[in-house]
Amino acid sequence: MPRLSIITPVFDPVPDHLVACLASVDQQTSGDWEHVVVDDASTDPQIVGVLDSWPPDPRRTVHRRADNGGIVAASNDAVERATGEFVVMLDHDDVLAPEAVQRLVEAVVSTPQADVLYSDHDLLRSDDRAVSPVYKPDFSPERLLNHNYITHLVAIRRDLVVRLGAFRAGFDGAQDHDLLLRATEVARTVQHLPEVLLHWRQSPASVAADIANKPDALDAGRRAVADALRRRGIEGTVDETELAGVYRIRREVLGAPTVSVVIPTRGSRGRVWGCERIFVHHAVASLLADRSSRCRLEFVVVADQPLDGVVERGLRMLAGERLVLVPFDQPFNFPAKVDAGARAATGDYLLILNDDTELIEPASIDEMVGIAQEPDVGLVGAKLLYGDGTLQHGGHVYNHTIDHALRGWDGAHPGPQHLLAIARECAGVTAAAALVRRDVYDEVGGMDPSLPVNYNDVDLSLRVRRSGRRIVWTPHACWYHFESRSAPHPIEPWEVEQLLERWPDALGGDPYYNPNLAPGRTDWLERPGRSGAPPFVLLADGSKVWG
Amino acid sequence: MDPLTDDGRVPRSELDRLRALLGPSERSYETLRADVDKAETLARDAQHELGRQRGEMAELRVQLARARQDQDTFQRRREMSAGAYLVDLAREGWIEVLRPRAGRVARAVGLRRPG
Questions:
Q1: How close, in Å, is residue B7 to chain A by CA atoms?
Q2: Mean pLDDT, chain A, whole residue set
Q3: Where are the alpha helices (DSSP H) in A232-298?
Q4: Cα of A385 to nearest chain B Cα, Å
Q5: Residues A229-232: contacts with CB under 8 Å, at least 24 apart
Q6: Which of A67-81, A95-109, B90-104 has the lowest mean pLDDT?
Q7: Whether the Cβ atoms of residue A512 and residue A137 lie closer than 8 Å to each other
Q8: pLDDT of residue A119
Q9: pLDDT grade, residue A202 (50/70/90)?
Q10: Distance between the two ends of chain B, CA-based, in angstroms?
């Protein structure tokens, strides 16, 4: 059985909080642990008293630093003294769930190649009630770059921590984010345990309460992410955002690639914001109006025949020599139209785009290409808004249903856990606006015409993921999608059956959702009783007080 | 009071404005274009305001669902005996952990159709 070294740097916490922290280690249901406590020269005599008077346990060692060296120095002292197979980070005021060690050990035994493990966590309120559980996705590297969604509880193989030089000086406050970024780059497997194994203390000045309390930590986090980009050979910039702890990464587009914008169309007209428009004209014109792109655009318009002369003339006027018009004279079949466009396209990237769209965010294509340049990324999706500004597409969720994440929320909302404000991995993305590298599209066999109307993008997404590649959704590429709010294409039972026959396991285990969230929903609603809402307290007189 | 046209149906100033908009000159077209753009912007802003309300409702619906299901769960647990509580936990474990695994195994060996 692997032994875990729980490391706790201590510096002047509230004494009761330290007591709760130490007690939570003692109360573990599994004994395969050692607890390395490093007192970083606490000045509060009560803290010294707590550490001195705590009942001795051969598994716990307390070391005192002569001088206060800060969180990085104290943590590194603890790592040096650790002897277990894994190092588990526990802050001096946080509380482990009783089964935390047991669960981690079980996970290591069942997944021996796991080098980094992390669990869900919740927040510990000032009245010691655990609230606001954070149910995380399985390992999501893009999300980890954009913000430290992992935070607690983390276990990393000790020899890996040592090999990486442990916590780095100069990253105080974001030292854990920095270590996670470095460790996950070389880890064989990063394992997520979908269970709350740590209660993160929410004291008024803590990062748990508000990371903006520690501005130096935000800058350290930004530098940690910038360093991660450098290590990975990604050219780009990192900036802080108005959401504390969330970083905006802008990748450089390498060279001047050609992006073939494949737009299947019937040349339809419709009324948007009170005005009549030919959809495909606006889709093309809005992209041409964006002068910020480094990419060369080629417009491959796959048009039903006969095409209205006004539509065709307008397209030629707008796109000129960049227009490749592909006639399509078969019954409606979205994948077949996209495939016909892909065959005629000459670009390094294909942007599959519905004609009833209009670009909102400048440089959206560069954002998507920047991400798709990474070899292990297969498909990049965009944020799509309805005409009223509400969210249509925030990535797919396959959680015993297939739908868009948080559909109908305010398009400007950052979403639960900031997930609408950050680029992150998704189970799939809609083909209404999706960018794919040409070689990936060809390798996975393009889109499947046997699903002519619905789920062809789900099938494409699943094939891309089966090829071992990631699918990334980014909010920094954004279009209007003037699709009807009600389902424009009713889903037929045979379509569901066909998808399930092909992908029997795909729809119940979305790695970027969480089993603690309610099945059949895509809005991050927890299962009953798991929202962290404190249950009522029953008083002696029978009355209830809600927590 | 704005004077009316000879037929008395619209104010003369409005007729003059419309004539200016529909006139053949480039300036008339630009004025008309600006008018349409302004109307479109106003319509979009109005729809976005509606969208903000809709978005807030969508978020509130999630919070309401959360509150209702938590209330129901805590109420049921409050009324349960210790035995019934254990049975409930076991049922939950079956639904969440064992049944999906059993389903996957059944599908893998062909005992059950997908779905």
A1: 31
A2: 93
A3: 279-288
A4: 10
A5: A229/A145, A231/A182, A231/A185, A232/A185
A6: B90-104
A7: yes
A8: 98
A9: confident
A10: 72
Q: Which of A275, A360, A388, A525 to mutate to test the interface with B (most CBs of B within 10 A)?
A: A388
pLDDT tens digits for range A424-462 = 999 999 999 999 999 999 999 999 999 999 999 999 999
Instruction: Say how far apart CA A89 and CA A79 lie, in whole Å.
Output: 10
Distance from CA of B62 to the nearest CA of A (A): 6
Closest CA to A101 of A191, A4, A9, A200: A4
Q: Please check the confidence at residue A206 and state whether its pLDDT lies above 80.
A: no
Q: Residue A136 in 3-state DSSP?
A: coil
Contact residues, chain B, for A404 at CB < 8 Å = none
Radius of gyration of chain A (CA): 26
Mean pLDDT, range A257-284, rounded to an integer: 95
B111 pLDDT band, cuts 50/70/90, is low
- Both tokens of A492, joined, read 């037929």
Which of B39, B66, B114 is opposite residue A526, by nearest beta carbon? B66
How far away is chain A from the Cα of B12, in angstroms, using its nearest Cα? Answer: 27
More confident residue, A538 or A203: A203
Q: CB distance B78–A536 less than 8 Å?
A: yes
Q: Which residue of B has its CA nearest to A536?
A: B74
Output the pTM of the full model.
Answer: 0.89
Cis, bond preceding A406 (omega within 30 deg of 0) = no
Q: Provide the residue count of chain B.
A: 115
pLDDT of residue B81: 78
Q: Are residues A275 and B54, on separate chains, in Cβ contact within 8 Å?
A: no
* Partners of residue B70 in chain A, C-beta under 8 Å: 528-529, 531, 533, 535
CA diameter of chain B: 90
Buried b / exposed e along A192-229 (16+ C-beta atoms within 10 A): bbebbbbbbbbbeebbbbebebbeebbebbbbbbbbbb
Q: Is B96's Cβ below 8 Å from some Cβ in A?
A: yes
Q: Which two three-digit tokens encode residue B50? A: 């509606």
Find the helix packing angle between A309-319 and A279-288, rounded to 10°: 0
Q: Is B58's CB within 8 Å of A390's CB? A: yes
Instruction: Check B51 against A411: CB less than 8 A apart.
Output: yes
* Gap between the Cα atoms of A304 and A336, Å rounded: 12
